[in-house]
Design a protein that fits this description.
Elements: E1 6-13, H1 16-30, E2 34-41, H2 55-66, E3 74-76, H3 88-102, E4 106-110, H4 117-129, E5 134-138, E6 151-155, H5 157-168, H6 181-194, E7 199-207
Parallel strand pairs: 1-2, 1-4, 2-3, 4-5
Antiparallel strand pairs: 5-7, 6-7
Bound molecules: zinc ion (ZN).
Zinc ion binds near residues 12, 13, 116 and 118.
Length: about 210
């Protein structure tokens, strides 16, 4: 399914992509896919003052490398956190550039049921820009009012470990419940149990095109 595909992950903020589909990214890389990652805000305004303001940019570079993304396939935009909707059209145009540059087969973005204002902006513009690609919606349960588990990506222990290691690179986010290895592992166990396997990540199918 993921073999040799070009996969583009859209992250409103650095860390959303690893949280939502870090396991799938690891598996896809293992299977020979090329994974691209675009983050639309490095949330400089939210970084604790004990860190440099560009700390999240440093952390996303480390985290995506751990999970197997090549540095040249990482795109970082510096929009203001919680104000992505103010620059909706700019974001759409950046996505259209990515579309012509990458020509992805599969685009993965936040669920359509994600209520965070920045996440819903990226999802709306992402569906608009990539309507001719397969599109999956990833799960961030603290922002999802509901979630349709349409597509399951079965993961190996190594994929879970890479996801945990990647998230550990986010020193600025330490202490948040959803960053903990226990939570990551438990969530993968819940989704795995739904399909009688050890570990999985679940996704909404927004659009699927079988070429
Ligand atoms: Zn976010």
């Amino acid at each position: 399914m993921l073999e040799n595909k070009k996969i583009l992950v859209l992250a409103p903020h650095t860390d959303d992509g690893e949280l939502g589909c870090g396991g799938l990214i690891s598996k896809a890389v293992r299977q020979g896919a090329t994974v691209f990652y675009a983050a639309f805000s490095t949330a400089d305004e939210s970084v604790p003052t004990t860190f440099p303001s560009n700390q999240l940019e440093i952390e996303v570079k480390q985290a995506t490398a751990i999970i197997g993304i090549q540095p040249e396939n990482l795109f970082i935009y510096k929009h203001t956190v919680r104000k992505l909707n103010y620059v909706r059209q700019e974001i759409l145009e950046e996505m259209i550039k990515l579309r012509s540059q990458i020509k992805p087969d599969i685009v993965i973005l936040p669920s359509r049921n994600d209520i965070h204002q920045d996440h819903s902006t990226v999802t709306a513009e992402g569906i608009r820009a990539f309507k001719n690609c397969s599109i999956l919606g990833y799960e961030l349960i603290w922002n999802n009012l509901s979630f349709a588990t349409d597509y399951f990506c079965v993961l190996k222990e190594d994929d879970i470990q890479k996801k945990i290691n990647a998230l550990a690179a986010y020193k600025t986010q330490e202490g948040k419940g959803y960053m903990s290895p226990d939570f990551i592992r438990s969530m993968a166990t819940v989704r795995g149990t739904q399909i009688n396997t050890m570990h999985a990540e679940a996704f909404e199918v927004i659009r699927w095109i079988d070429n």
